[in-house]
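Page 47, continued from p. 46.
Same chain as before, 568 aa.
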Amino acid sequence: MLWIRNRLAKLLAGIAVAGLAGTWAVGAVRDKSEVARMTEKMKTVCVGRFLVDMPEEAHVELIRPRIDGFDINSFEESPDTFQARLKAREEQLRLIPDRLGGNKNLEMTKEIKTEAGVTGKIFVHSRTVREGTRARGLELEHYRYEGVDLEGLVHADGLSFDIIGSNHSVKGMDDLPKLVSQLIPNAESRIPTVPGFCIAHATIRDPLAATQGEEVVMVARLPSHPDIEFMMIVAAGMKPVDQGLLERNAESRARMSTSEGTHVSTIRGTSRTIGGLDGDEVAERFAEDNAATVYSFWWEVNGTEDNVFVPHISFTMDTGKGKHGPVLSSLSEGVALGLWEKISSSLRLRPTESPRAASIKPVPIPIGTDALAGEICPQSGWWRCGDGDKGAGVMGGQRQYIKQGDRMPQALLLPPPSLWERVRGLQPSFEAKDRTSWTLVDKRTRKRVPPSPRLADAIPAAPVVLEVGWGDATSNTVTLPIGSFATTGSPCPASGWWRCEEPNALDGTRWFARGGLLPPATFALPPGVFGKTQAIQRRSVWQLMRHASVPGAEAAPRHDGIDPRAAV
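Result:
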């Protein structure tokens, strides 16, 4: 009887396991079917420099865009309403007292009209000043910082853009006009083909540097499942944190009490690569105090500080979000995990090459174009540094040659040394807190090499009779000894190679014909303001090195070992 009871128990256990496996299989098929239904129709959304596919029903917002310290707010508005609001804002700024109680709060207005059809005004107002003294080595130095509010109100294609930067550096007042010139409206939110950064209803076209700190946040919700929320944060130019998502999550779990830990279960915690970007992923199940079960999915890229194509990215999906606290997830664990994998896997860098790219000629960069330190140089040529005023010099010169594709440098400024620094032979240097502004002043495909100054020519003279005491008395040929000297302005006594005796002269060894007046020596001066090499000429002494009837005849080598024929 015992073996019959054991056999019956095993049979019932087998039936139970088979039933559970069948239920699990049916559930897995049902979950896949539900995910397929929710993602049957998808739409592509541009978030910063990336694309992600969302269910067609998703309501997507791009919020809190920020570039180069400017907050950008975009919204629909008619042209008439915009013009009325623009006028009212200007009048309001004029009525606000300035920092001294005067009526100069609105310092400047600038009309804006770009090639993309963007029009409006830029206001410079609300100047602030901070000044005082601070220690610099053994000395006290005076400092003064001035900031202004830059405000751009612009409009195009039924869209208005309010671009505002508070307490912006006075030296960076050109930052806002430049940013507006890069604004391309996109009322229909189409996927752009030009390189740049997507925000709501617009693209900010390149060049944009990582140091400009481009940021945007995407928030998406599904009307059919109002408890589900997606959020993606993209931020370039951020210093990577010391700990990644997995480490931070492990520390957070370790700090939980025993009772708190029973409410959290880890579904997945691992490294995951999406769209070529390496990141960390954490998926968890939470049992809330009100007995609601919710799910959280999080993928994060720590990012880089100097590459806009590898920014900090935080992408999350949460279920069970209610207006007054957590609610029971409308999705089962399997459906939630499948939906998350489907959408997160679609994240990729936005391509910017269009089929016509090869036939499009590059837009010429005009003289006067400005660029900031850290940006990619758009044109090879000579750029003038905007820093270096008030007696401070610039390492490498106020004008520097910068090659297209290189990063614009941050100028190293050289203030006048103090008496103590002069005694010690030290040259102080510092970098400005604000990014250096550069202006293109001369375009050329390669670095300018100043031409060498033209050497003075010997002056032909009428034949003269030379009375010398050398040579053969029976011969009509007069031979001048090697090493003989003659001075500038005197007739050359013999055809041949003559060496200039001035050590810093550019002449070296030159050929002169007999009878011509010997020229002065030529000396180079440092390049002038426009990069042109200047020269002076003064009298010199010339020494005969070798006789030669014509310049091509074999000549004596110069004292420095250079073939004199190469100097002609």
